[in-house]
Amino acid sequence: MRRMAEHHVWMNGAGVAILNWFGEVGGYPEYGVYSRKVLNYLYSAAEEVPEIDGYRWPLAPGVPVYETGDHGAYYVGLAFIDSYRLYKDPKALEYAEGLARWLMSIAIEENGGYTWTMNQVSDSKMVGLHGGSAGTATLFAQLYRLTGKEDYKKYALGAGRWVQSQAIRSRGGYAWSEDRVNGDISRCHGTAGMVYTFYFLYLTTGDDTMKEYAEGALRWLEAMAVEDEGGYMWPKQEGGSEPRSGLGRGMAGVADAFLIAHLVNEEPENLDQEMFGYSTLHFWPKGKLKKTDSRYLKYVRGACDWLEAKALRQGNTLTWYLPGDIGYPKINARMCMGVGGMGIFWLKMYDAFGGEKYKQLAIASTRWLEMTRYRVGRAGAWPWTNTPIPGLDMSQRYAHWEDALVLAAVGKRLDVPELVQTAKDTMDTFVAVATEQDDKLMLRSWVTEKHLEQANAKISQGEIAP
């Protein structure tokens, strides 16, 4: 259900953040025209819940499943928050708060805090930053930052307390996983994501217990580190599993967690707390690190050394092998678990440490994205998967629009104009394949080659660039 719909409502929420950020970082602020049209679609897709003066959104048109996590309320809410931050549009804040009232109305009080089931037809209560109560906690925390309303602080901390109650006590620290058995290192669904979550809650609310759990997560990650290839690696789960490279589910996310810890504890004045809808971009260093040695940087550098040693070179590009992800190719473009995330990770390391090495790692991994983009003329996107998913043929589907952010960020920051141009062509494709009606734009979750042919015709005729 999640993968089959062409027009996921949550993808339109993520799309607003992608378009907004592309405008800011890629240097094309006029793309805000399109993000506001997508917002208009999200306004129109809202279902009123009059008894609480709230709003909720279905998973997709005609699919009355109301998701609370990243395939629903999380990305829709962040679209409104991100747009209010940029444009100060009161309607965006109105709908963000309406969504928050809906989430508060269906919250489950448990273990001294609050949690949510994935949707109204599931009993599953997810814990992670992407899809679970940790992510919902950060959503409420952002609303508290924007409005100062105590209800949002209450639910942010309540969700945080429930996530604390799900911690696995292990190796002198705390770990998390969706199975609640074996601690998972990942940013999306495990322990690295909790470092970010709890530090964000601590910095937003001043609650010291949130900081304690961030540091407990770091202790577990430290204890799980294994010396290898002249650096450090982490098995994906406690109890033994193959290591993974990616930002969302692997080693890059662990390194990022330790960099966040360094910034919060050693260089708070160098921590950029400006929030973007796309959480991969949070907690960036304002400038090069002033302190070159700390308990945390040892693991950042160690993870970087291991990742560099494991890189696969193809011409002037770099990529990484990613074992164990069912339904996706072993080497893929995804931001969460593939090379898209590696490009933005290396750029963050370059901004933190400087140096030619990290610059070239960022450029080479992003060139792999440029090389593997499936093109029809100037239009293009990345293969969804070339590995069969039981019961679902996605082999001729193309997506991963968020990779345009990586191309734009690396190309702009490191002065590689062809990467910025590929990013713009991808964003033009994203807009060209959307369904437009009056002042609304409905984005597609994935496209076929026929869609790309239609997009190329529009781009070539100059119909897209605002």
Walk me through what this model shows.
The chain is mainly alpha-helical. The chain has 15 helices and 17 strands. It has helices at 9-26, 32-45, 73-87, 90-106, 133-147, 150-165, 191-205, 208-224, 251-266, 297-310, 339-353, 356-372, 403-413, 417-432, 449-460, and strands at residues 47-49, 54-56, 108-110, 113-115, 168-170, 173-175, 226-228, 231-233, 271-272, 284-285, 312-314, 317-319, 374-376, 379-383, 398-399, 435-437, 440-442. The chain has a 3-stranded antiparallel β-sheet. Helix 3 (73-87) runs antiparallel to helix 4 and helix 3 packs parallel to helix 5 (133-147). It is globular and about 60 Å long.
The geometry reads as globular
Measured by DSSP, the beta-strand proportion falls in 5-15%
SSE-based structural type: mainly alpha
Helical fraction: 40-55%
Give the termini separation: 34 Å
Characterize the main sheet. Answer: 3 strands, antiparallel
Q: Which helices and strands appear, and what pairs or packs with what?
A:
Elements lengths: L8 H18 L5 H14 L1 E3 L4 E3 L16 H15 L2 H17 L1 E3 L2 E3 L17 H15 L2 H16 L2 E3 L2 E3 L15 H15 L2 H17 L1 E3 L2 E3 L17 H16 L4 E2 L11 E2 L11 H14 L1 E3 L2 E3 L19 H15 L2 H17 L1 E3 L2 E5 L14 E2 L3 H11 L3 H16 L2 E3 L2 E3 L6 H12 L6
Antiparallel strand pairs: 1-2, 3-4, 5-6, 7-8, 9-10, 11-12, 13-14, 14-15, 16-17
Helix pairs in contact: 1-2, 1-3, 1-13, 2-3, 3-4, 3-5, 5-6, 5-7, 6-7, 7-8, 7-9, 8-9, 9-10, 11-12, 11-13, 12-13, 13-14, 14-15
Q: Keywords, please?
A:
three-stranded antiparallel β-sheet, globular, mainly alpha, 15 helices, 17 strands, 466 residues, two-stranded antiparallel ribbon
